[in-house]
């Protein structure tokens, strides 16, 4: 699933999400353990991409927690407390990246809204106590099955299950962030219509750190 996305600028956070970005800084693209802005019910926080940052994983263990499957949120130890406590967030972005194998090889596809506007996807977040006593934040994106989605079923290797991020409608931002019941929250976990999305091949620059392509 999605392990890389383009972050919004501070001005885009103000214009499209009506939030103040604060003084934090982040890179134009987010990969595992990179800081990126998320929106919680209390405002914007800079959080690490991946629910369990590498520095908090046991020695010799490498967990990928950038995406959380909607079907198992309530059961997996990694996510269940945050899900049952409705620690919901929005992950704002300009686009995310997935591989398409329609040409017979992996092509990095940039996926976003058809009108090019920034958007937000459903996520979970939590806090971590750091070794120096400070408190940091981390997040994961929620994914759902996309086997029958006209666009997202074209992504990933043939035969693999297709998954998609959950794009949240701006009209539902407040309702999602302030939801206090996990079963009610499931009603938000629907695929965005393919007619309002766009995908295009990314320019073939050398892959950056963390790339799967």
Number of strands: 13
Largest sheet descriptor: 8 strands, mixed
Instruction: Give the SSE string.
Output: EHEEEEHEEEEEEEHHE
Mean pLDDT across the residues is 94
Number of helices: 4
Measured between the Cα atoms of the first and last residue, the distance is 12 Å
What portion of the residues fall into strands of 2 or more residues? 25-35%
Please tell me about this protein's structure.
This protein has helices spanning 10-17, 80-84, 173-177, 182-185, and strands at 5-6, 29-30, 35-40, 43-49, 67-69, 88-93, 95-100, 107-113, 119-129, 135-145, 163-165, 167-168, 197-201. It is mainly beta. Strands 3, 4, 5, 6, 9, 10, 11 and 12 form an eight-stranded mixed beta sheet that branches. The protein has a five-stranded antiparallel beta sheet with strand order 2-1-7-8-13, with no helix packed on it. The longest helix is centred in the first third of the chain and has 8 residues, at 10-17. It is globular, with a radius of gyration of 16 Å.
Mind sketching the topology for me?
Elements (H helix, E strand, L loop, with lengths): L4 E2 L3 H8 L11 E2 L4 E6 L2 E7 L17 E3 L10 H5 L3 E6 L1 E6 L6 E7 L5 E11 L5 E11 L17 E3 L1 E2 L4 H5 L4 H4 L11 E5 L12
Parallel strand pairs: 4-10, 5-10
Antiparallel strand pairs: 1-2, 1-7, 3-4, 6-9, 7-8, 8-13, 9-10, 9-12, 10-11
Defining traits:
mainly beta, 213 residues, globular, eight-stranded mixed β-sheet, five-stranded antiparallel β-sheet, single chain, 13 strands, disordered C terminus, 10% helix
In short:
By secondary structure, the protein is mainly beta. It contains 4 helices and 13 strands.
